[in-house]
Amino acid sequence: MRSLTCLLALAALLPGLSVPALAAGDCSAGPGTARVLEVDPAGLEVGLKHFPQTLDLAEGEFVLTFDDGPSAGTTPMVLKALAAGCVRATFFLVGTRAAESPALVKRILAEGHGIGYHSQTHPMTLADLPYDKAVRDIERGIASVDRAAYGNVTASPRFPFFRFPGFGSSPQLLAYVASRKMGVFGADLWASDWNAMTPDAELDLVLTRMEHAGRGIVLFHDTRLQTARMVPALLKAMKERGYRVVHVVPRGPATAGTSP
Ligand SMILES: [Zn+2]
Questions:
Q1: From the CA of 31, how far away is ligand 1's center (Å)?
Q2: CA of 40 relative to ligand 1 center, distance in Å
Q3: How many Å lie between the centroid of ligand 1 and the Cα of residue 187?
Q4: 179 vs 43: CA distance, rounded Å
């Protein structure tokens, strides 16, 4: 605690130092973030559940992603657990929820996590909507998240990552998202946390799948209480098993767009 106090005092003296950097001082509650993987968003389509390819991950490396937030009731629990384990994740945000909780969007960013878009209203699915309506929902989602994060909207999306709700894409919509210079994230495995189960059961399920897959992009929902309650135990188990967390960030000019 004393060292933390010192660090915080140091942070006050050195405003250039970010909180995430300081948080690296005590990662006892989780595996930490082993490395940052820069990817070119142009043409990116990753996640073996729906695409033939995924991220270039080594055995034991996992990317943690959380969809559908932010949610005032549960996202802070997830953020707290991630911070305690020095783990950086990516949050695919729903526009309407970002508009409701702009402070949480800013907090996600301030704590060093990545953000991607997940549409404005989370239709199931965008591919089932008329094309124009689907595009409008995608664009409104971008605007809502950018406004929540930075207070304004620019010509290009601030965060060049997108995930289709329910993975419901179409060739036309994939082309549209690519035209907006956003890479598309699917997933390699998931916790099936849309099904009601206890945090313990969810932990067992996702650890079994992680062991089986060996690596990959893992999908959770930070809107689910059972998941928010499970994350601390998940990070502890990942550390014990020697799993490594990889934080994916966009490479190139797009990275500049994530600055305020
Ligand atoms: Zn979703």
A1: 26
A2: 23
A3: 12
A4: 9
Q: How far apart are CA 235 and CA 248, in angstroms?
A: 18
What six digits make up the tokens of 110?
């301030």
Give per-residue pLDDT as tens, 141-169. Answer: 999 999 999 999 999 999 999 999 999 99
The CATH superfamily label for domain 2-256 reads: Glycoside hydrolase/deacetylase (3.20.20.370)
123 CA to centre of ligand 1 in angstroms: 9
User: Distance from the CA of 239 to the center of ligand 1, in angstroms?
Assistant: 27
Distance 166 CA to ligand 1 centre (A): 6
| The model scores a pTM over 0.90 | no
Closest CA to 224 of 248, 206, 247: 206
- The answer to whether 49 touches 187, Cβ cutoff 8 Å, is yes
Q: What is the DSSP letter of 151?
A: S
Instruction: Read off the tokens for 256.
Output: 């500049």
Token pair of 26, please? 């005590």
CA of 193 to the centre of ligand 1 (A): 11
Q: Give mean pLDDT, residues 181-208.
A: 98
Ligand 1 centroid – CA 41 distance (Å): 20
Question: CA separation (Å) from 56 to 91, 215, 246, 248?
Answer: 20, 10, 10, 11
Distance CA 98, CA 254 (A): 21
Strands 90-93 and 61-67: parallel
CA separation for the pair 158, 248 (Å, rounded):
15
